[in-house]
UniProtKB/TrEMBL annotation:
It comes from Prochlorococcus marinus str. PAC1. This is proton-translocating NAD(P)(+) transhydrogenase. The chain crosses the membrane at residues 59-82. It is an enzyme of class 7 (translocase). The keyword Translocase applies. Residues 8-92 form the NAD(P) transhydrogenase alpha subunit C-terminal domain. Keywords: Cell inner membrane, Cell membrane, Membrane, NAD, NADP, Oxidoreductase, Translocase, Transmembrane, Transmembrane helix. One of its GO terms (cellular component) is plasma membrane. PANTHER family: NAD(P) TRANSHYDROGENASE, PROTON-TRANSLOCATING NAD(P)(+) TRANSHYDROGENASE. It is found in: Cell inner membrane. One of its GO terms (biological process) is NADPH regeneration. The keyword Electron transport does not apply. It catalyses: NAD(+) + NADPH + H(+)(in) = NADH + NADP(+) + H(+)(out).
Length: 97
């Protein structure tokens, strides 16, 4: 079995497991779990940067590392925006005197 087919199996099984787990999460726990996912995306960003730096002249690894870095960065920024928006909902509004 080649590395590519093994990687596809891992992707498929991980996606199915993720869908099953996310479907059972109540809405009140969604934001704290999203913060945890942002931490994981930060780790993914470090791994992608390492892959890009080590790839050197290997163009396929450079492309895969750049794509994974883009997705991880998008997830981190989106998570911070959602968390900021959620915290703004709970902040006290200024009252006029």
């Amino acid at each position: 079995m080649s590395f590519f087919s093994e990687a596809l199996w891992v992707l498929l099984l991980g996606s199915l497991l993720g869908l099953e787990l996310i479907g059972k999460v109540p809405p009140t726990l969604h934001t704290p779990l999203m913060s945890g996912a942002n931490a994981i995306s930060g780790i993914t960003m470090l791994a992608a940067l390492t892959l890009i730096i080590k790839s050197g002249d290997n163009l396929p690894l450079l492309i895969i590392g750049s794509i994974s870095l883009g997705f991880a960065l998008f997830n981190v920024i989106g998570g911070f925006l959602v968390t900021d928006r959620m915290l703004a909902m709970f902040s006290r509004k200024k009252t006029r005197k």
